[in-house]
Write a structure and sequence with these properties.
This protein has helices at residues 4-12, 16-31, 42-62, 68-87, 111-132, 140-177, and strands spanning 36-39, 96-98, 103-106. The chain is built from six helices and three strands, in the order ααβααββαα.
Length: 178
Amino acid sequence: MLTDSMLFQIIAHTPRWVFALFALLAWRGARQLLTREVSLVGVTVLPLAMIGFALYGVASAFGQSQAGLLALVAWAVAAAASGFWMQGRPLSPHTRYDPDLREFLLPGSPWPLVRMMGIFLTKYVVGVTLVLHPALAHDSGFALGVSALYGLFSGIFAGGTLRLWRLAIGADRRASLA
């Protein structure tokens, strides 16, 4: 059980860049609470960065252990499953794509913020946990669970981006036929 003193020590020994990254992700996520116009590149870069951050989380936690390959497989399976599920879900009826401007009009949503904080907090908690209990880096069950969680977030980001790309491709085709 964490005491106040342990919690203070954990926060005191957290590198400053971690707080800066948290602030950046919170700011980016908060911006997505509002309706906004985003380019095709813009809807792709952030999900790719978050997927990269999740993969970095798997590699940094388990890459040097025997559980490393199993962790990557767990990430990939969870990412594929959640990505397939997410890309099959309908977009908000308020989502629009303008093929002339190559921009989306996206309604505000709390879910991007939730996903970004989910990956960030998973990385932070796993990092702290492995500092306090280094043997867990070699525990297959821990590696599988954490990696599957990273994969879940990654797939949801990827599936959401694929939905938007499909909307853009369909609109571009219709525009070129007109």
